[in-house]
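User: Hello, can you help with two protein structures?

Assistant: Certainly.
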Amino acid sequence: MAKKKEEKLDWQKNTLLYVHDLMYLLLIVMLLFVLVFRIIVVSGASMKMTLLDGDYLLLLSNTFYHQPKQGDIVVISKETFDNGKPIVKRVIATEGQTVDIDFENSIVYVDGVALQEDYTNAPTNVDGGTRFPLTVAEGCLFVMGDNRGVSKDSRYPDVGQIDKREVLGKAIFLMYPGTDDGSYPREMSRVGAIK
């Protein structure tokens, strides 16, 4: 009788220990996703073919990502554009750099050097209303989508230059692929680090 009672207590203790450990594990995961990482879902076609509508992205949060560099894919929240809804764009230039765009020949220049933009899906022939050449202000970024024909980005005055404080983080990993048309199966080969 005493042995059965002991076994019952052991089972209860073990269950309690598992629940205790699980709570700590959940707390650690929550802290990681509050302080270090974020998950964002791409909305729209502005980054097509690099990223598609519905892609789930893992971001390195701005808590640890302070210095955006040319070529980084960042997620931005700008109150003056789409009520602060997160948008995904590529950093073209950082503070102090001069951007010029030859819309006739679809060439983007940064500090007089033509960018090699193998990642673009459409030519850069839509001007958006911003006057070029443009020098990026201190603490700001000039961003563009890879699908230049449909992307609302720094070429448009309602988006304009992005204050670094508006950057939520850098996209580092495609966790789950989306599709442009919602079709299945999804292209799982796209899962991986974002370049």
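That covers the first. Now for the second protein you mentioned:
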Amino acid sequence: MSKSREEINKTEQDYWNNKKLDRKKIKPLRRHAFHFSYNRERKLLNEVIQVTEGKEVLELGSYVWSDWIKNKVVPKKLTCINISETELQTGIDHAKGVSFETEFHLMDANNLTFPDESFDVVIGGAILHHLDIEKTLSHVHRVLKPNGIIIFLEPLNMNPLYKIYRKLNPQERTPDEHALVSSDFKIIKKKFTFDHYFMDFFSVIFGFISLKIYGDKNYGNWLNKFGFNLDVLCSKIPFMHVFFARVVLFGKKK
């Protein structure tokens, strides 16, 4: 029997309020596998986030903006929402002393209560896969102004090896989350045009080898760089996209 949205929301609140996720096991591999792609991600986000300059921005979440926007761009106003009181407070703490107006709401991203066409840009880091994507993006489309922009960074779950890993390590994620699959991209295409930037396939394979050789150190070694360069090359080949671990979406309201 499938869970109701209310039941899922309560579980999400519980996990985030009480910090139940345990990602200690995966962190050493991520430090190797994502070492170069994190730099690529940062450069890419620094470029696309410029669209928030002087704009009304909504974050689904509450503190990814502190990495993406803070000390880089000055929006007209930043509004953040979160279903978790603890996560929302983290965002409020990050907002102390910023030069632009901020506003924080305890709110379910599946049911945005803002008026139509309230925002120029909607952003989110690793958030859509915790939500009913079709319902959430319908609300995002509604609250965006004409030609409004979306920027999301999301994990993927199309590679069979990742599916197996996720099954074997449930402590690293909330019970009802669902990293994006091909059908989710079809949902996004209904309401947005977008570019996507795929990251981390070969870098995960070579990162695993690198971790075994070097241990939890020396992340900038040639193995990790080789895996990263293969990823950059293969990310340009459409049929390879199903193998990647993460994606940045930069789109516009239809």
